Amino acid sequence: MSVVSDDEKNMSAAGKSIAGNLHDLQARVYKTAQRVGRDPMDVALVAISKVHGVDAIRAALATGHRIFGENRVQEAQQKWPALKAEYADVALHLVGPLQTNKVRDAVALFDVIEALDRPKLAAKLAEEMAEQSRSLPCFVQVNTGEEPQKAGVLPKEAGAFIKLCRLDYGLTIQGLMCIPTQDEEPAMHFAFLREIARRNDVPCLSMGMSADFETAIELGATHVRLGTAVFGPRPPKP
Ligand SMILES: *Cc1c(COP(=O)(O)O)cnc(C)c1O
After folding, report:
1. Which atom of ligand 1 lies nearest, measured to the CA of 96?
2. Phi, psi dihedral angles at 37 (to 5 degrees)
3. What is the spatial distance between Cα 148 and Cα 108, in angstroms, rounded to a whole number?
């Protein structure tokens, strides 16, 4: 399927390559889902636009893509309010760690919070959502590799934490999210996350990035988070 809009025809070379990447990636998502007997409509491609500028995001929007992710609240605040005013149907996911002092801004700007990982954050999110009359679905991040430097609840604590979020704070736990340990087989982490979701009646799984999203789809991902594969390499951190 190739639908080229007028916006796309007028795009720069960089924009055209982003549009082309998105078309190719959507096709790969579709094929992988079909191959394993899943409904391709059950897999959302979340385009991770962190570090990339508004022009790159606009190129993706011009193709009709509407699901995006950012990992920092402040950076997102610089790029997204104007774009969201223009594209009301955008769904913006926060995929990075969230500090409690940024919760107010995050609840105001984002549509999905993907890195819920501690009781204090759950409490603050519930308070701000009530305050702003906004109910955002959340994903609980699970530290499947039990890495000390990584965010996320430990696997053995996930069940109790999900219950706490649901019962004590009334949050909608739509999914689980993980970032596999570098240099380990990602499939093991994806299967583990799926099992934790199954045990706790959590419907969605945010797992799989540019290098391993097809494996993630095979193992049940409902959201794949693709940065490099959509927008190209990110400049190295200063
Ligand atoms: C940057 C990032 C991604 C995208 O990574 P790529 O390898 O560039 O696809 C996905 N998830 C999170 C949480 C990220 O921070």
Report:
1. 13
2. 75, 25
3. 31
**Torsion of Cα atoms, 12 then 14 then 18 then 21, to 10°:** 110
Domain tally, the chain: 1
By residue range, what is the domain housing residue 115?
9-227
Integer angstrom CA distances of residue 50 from 95, 114, 181: 10, 15, 21
Residue 232: inside a domain, yes or no?
no
Interhelix angle 186-199/155-163, nearest 10 degrees: 30
Report d(CA 196, CA 23) in Å as an integer: 32
CATH assignment at residue 13: 3.20.20.10
Going by pLDDT thresholds of 50, 70 and 90, the confidence category of residue 238 is low
User: How far from 82 is each of 50, 102, 135, 136, 197, CA to CA, in Å?
Assistant: 16, 19, 21, 20, 35
Residues 6+ apart with CB under 8 A from 97: 71, 115, 117, 151
Residues 70 and 90 sit within 8 Å (Cβ to Cβ):
no
Cβ < 6 Å from ligand 1: which residues?
48, 50, 71, 95-96, 179, 209-210, 225-229
Does the predicted model carry a pTM greater than 0.85?
Answer: yes
Ligand 1 centre from 96 Cα, in Å?
9
Higher pLDDT, 180 or 16: 180
- Would residue 1 count as lying in a domain? no
Residue closest to 97 by CA, chosen among 61, 160, 50, 65: 50
Q: Flag whether 2 is in a domain.
A: no
The pLDDT tens digits for 220-237 are 999 999 999 999 998 776
